[in-house]
Amino acid sequence: MKIKSCILFCFLAQTIFAQIEFSLELDQFGVTYTVFAKPAEELKLSKKILASTAQVTLVTQNGVELAHFKNLGGEWDGGNSIVREPIEDANHDYISVGMVGDHKPKLSFKSGKPTALFSFETVDGCQGAMRLIDNRKDIFAKVPNSANNNPGNDLSAIDVVGMNRLYYNGNYKPFKVDCPSENLSPFSTILEPFNPVYATVELEKAKDAESYEIQARLKGTKEWLTSVDFKETKLYFYGHLGQIYEYQVKTIFKDGRADWGNISEITRVEAEQEEKYLKP
């Protein structure tokens, strides 16, 4: 028993502790949020990293509901712990997302590089500012609190090769995001500098048509995004990756008539392109 205790003590004594930080990003569409984790740059990490616990707490506007949740690094519960309008901060809701496994997909880290943990949308689209909780400063992060809840950001993992133990130690910018000033359509040329063309949409040309207008919205949401005018029947689609949109096309005829019609849904891109986008 003494020998085993000594081995365990020596093992722990040789472990190097190192920090890891979280960030929260919102894409140019104002649609998809992604949470990243980044280890300290000076670390030398192997590919054999095991995570034991992790949690991310989002501070949102009242009534926000997560949707289209996607695991990107590790398995996450999608935000099962929700506290609405706690006494400490009735102007916000607290949504905690817990990690339930680290292999589907595998959670891996590179020194100084952000790793995407998960992404999500919100049911009614962007609804104001959202931020990662600050464990040290947030008034609701103190335990015990009015909801008997345990909010906060946390991550604990170990590199079994180098014996580096990773632990959460704060947030790095951006850790607070807000809605863009304009809700961009995935067809908007404003997005061209950020995203390459992911698809081309060819519409059937209507007789005596002069121009067209297209609008899109994320399936399940209520608000149409900013419409886009175009002259030809061919449209270039700049994303949004991995999502399904609903579309309406308005045909404007030479005599001034206008006719709205639906076009088919389009699902987005190959996995390698999606990965490139999610981990810029």
Radius of gyration: 23 Å
Distance between the termini: 50 Å
Identify low-pLDDT runs. Answer: 1-15, 267-280
In terms of DSSP E residues, the strand content is: 35-45%
The mean pLDDT is 81
According to DSSP, the number of beta strands is 18
Q: Into which percent range does the helicity of residues fall?
A: under 10%
H/E series = HEEEEEEEEEEEEEEEEEEH
Count of distinct structural domains: 2
Q: Could you say which overall geometry the principal axes of the C-alpha atoms support? A: elongated
Largest sheet: 12 strands, mixed
Helical region count? 2
Estimated structural class: mainly beta
Summary, kept brief:
The protein has 280 residues and is mainly beta. 7% of the residues lie in helices and 41% in strands.
Provide an overview of this structure.
With 280 residues, the protein is mainly beta. It has helices at 2-13, 271-278, and strands at residues 16-26, 33-39, 49-61, 66-71, 75-76, 81-83, 92-101, 115-122, 130-132, 154-159, 164-171, 176-177, 199-202, 209-218, 228-230, 234-237, 245-253, 258-263. The strands form three sheets. Strands 1, 2, 3, 4, 5, 6, 7, 8, 9, 10, 11 and 12 form a twelve-stranded mixed sheet that branches.
Record the SSE blueprint.
Elements: H1 2-13, E1 16-26, E2 33-39, E3 49-61, E4 66-71, E5 75-76, E6 81-83, E7 92-101, E8 115-122, E9 130-132, E10 154-159, E11 164-171, E12 176-177, E13 199-202, E14 209-218, E15 228-230, E16 234-237, E17 245-253, E18 258-263, H2 271-278
